[in-house]
Amino acid sequence: MQAMENKLTAAKYIFPIQTADGKNGYTPAKETAVCSQPQRPKDLKLVESTADVNPVLLQVLADCTLEVHDDSENTESRGVSRLFSFLQILTAMFGSFAHGGNDVSNAIGPLVTLWLIYTEGGVQQKSETPLYILLFGGFGISVGLWLWGRRVIQTIGEDLTTITPSTGFTIEIGAAFTVLLASKVGIPISTTHCKVGSVVFVGYFSTSKKGVDWSLFRNIIFAWAVTVPISAMLSAGIMFSLRWAILL
Questions:
Q1: How far is Cα 42 from Cα 116, in angstroms, rounded to an integer?
Q2: Which residue of 35, 55, 99, 177 has the smallest Cβ count within 10 Å?
Q3: How far is C-alpha 34 from the chain's CA centre?
Q4: Residue 23 belongs to what H/E stretch?
Q5: For residue 25, what is the enclosing H or E element?
Q6: What is the distance between the alpha carbons of residues 19 and 148, in angstroms, rounded to a whole number?
Q7: Within a 13 Å sphere around the CA of 195, how many CA atoms are in the beta-carbon half?
Q8: Are 184 and 128 in contact (CB under 8 A)?
Q9: Alpha-carbon distances, residue 205 vs 157, 199, 200, 209 (angstroms)
Q10: pLDDT digit string (tens) for 2-15?
Q11: Distance CA 189, CA 112 (A)
Q12: Residues 71-82: what's their mean pLDDT?
């Protein structure tokens, strides 16, 4: 009797769905909701332990378990994950190096120009950038990452697609090489654009088309499209205001 009560309690915990009488239970119409519960069964033992609760419930348990089993086939072995987890530390350092070579330059370029005009009266073709300005730019990016970077990290690293250590390794390598090559030839590009492109297509080829959140990707593309004219208009408006204030 006690064992049966334990099974019923476990089933109600796994499937907290309200029935018409207000009690926790299961109805066939709720199958989709059942399978989407975060507490869905993880192995067949749990399915067997609830066999005498409800035959329909047993079938849904089995379906959810097979779904989990199918998903687990795409996961990596512990040895592979451990190897690429270590390699990702190196690729993250490589990516940070590439990021510093391009994005820091983008951020402090206008500041360097203002500083050279202030100190030298103009900008020479081969003017040297002071080291402390480079350090200031790196410090600013680090503080921005610490204060505001968590949400962007979640969007790229978790929401777009599922990333494993091996796919993360390939994403870092591809994006870092692209940014580093652009920095070498003097082309200012966005590290974020490169990372998002790598994440989406690595996720697509490593899982499937359904493995990528395409609606989120479309939102990111839309944000890229609108931020260029918005930033241009804001900058032009600020410049116009400053010139108007100075002339007065």
A1: 63
A2: 55
A3: 27
A4: none
A5: strand 24-25
A6: 43
A7: 22
A8: no
A9: 16, 10, 9, 8
A10: 444 444 444 444 44
A11: 18
A12: 66
